Each structure stands twice: as structure tokens, then as C-alpha cells.
What does this fold into?
Amino acid sequence: MPMRWLTRETFTGGLSDEEHRERDRQWLKARQSVRPLLHSGAERLIDINLHDGVINQLRQVEPDVVECQALIGDNDVGYEWLHARYLGAGLNVVEAGFGAGGSLFEILRDELAIQDGSFVHSVITWPRGEFDIVFRSVDVALTPGKGGERMALFARTYKQ
It folds into this structure.
């Protein structure tokens, strides 16, 4: 299920200013309409700002478990490590390219939806890539992080 509102063209200048504003309005409206339907941990995801998060690890660890670890935040709000364990889950690649060659990738934005009784967490990344995690529940933990860890993650990637 590709991202509905925040597509690649949203971030690459493929939209006019008005089209960009309209997509943002649609995204916010969709978030508000799905919010009351979220449960089983998904209600926590919608309030976490993933923009510019650096994904350190994303993997299908068992046939029905996906794990994601990302350093989120910025210098203004501070940094946190997001640890998400999606249960009853599958990882679906919508646009290949994220994490190519073991490289890190940044989150541009994410969307939450409900489809066929499951939750769908769609994520678009920079410089390329998009994925969905279809899940039944998610365990989310946030722990303190530091800005220096962000640079260390990138430094580690570029040494490979």
C-alpha cells in the first residue's frame, strides 16, 4: 500500500505550492479520522514525530514480527531512540532503495491507516525508498538519545 498523501513528489518539488498545501491538509485530515480507531499500541505511533529520524535497524525477525530501531528528534526538541516491535506483522517494500548496501536512511514522513482489520504504518525515506509494516499490535519504547549518536550512525555507515 504506497503512501497515499505524502508521495515521493511531495518531497522532490513535483508539486506546486498549492498542491503541496493540499496534500498536507489531506494528510492531517486522514490522521485525525484514523486516530480514534487506533489501539494495541498504534495510538502511540501517531503522536511520535518520525521526520528526520535515522533508521538504524529495520528487519523481519520472525515470520510475524518486525523490529525497527531509529534515532528520532533534532537539536531543538532533543533526541530519543525509538524501539518498535510490530506483532502479527509483515514488512512490505513499496519502493526499493532504502538501506541499500547496509546504509542508513532518514525518515521523511509516515502515515498510519487501517486496512482489512490491520494497521498499516507506511514510511517514506530519503534518499529513496518506501515501506509498509502491516501489523496487529506494536510495542513502542522511547529511550533518551544524543545528537552525537546521529553523527556516529552516519560516520559508521560511510566507513563501510
User: Anything to note?
Assistant: The beta strands are 54-62, 65-74, 78-87, 90-95, 105-115, 118-126, 130-135, 137-145. The chain is about 25% helix and 45% strand. The CA atoms of residues 91 and 133 lie 5 Å apart.
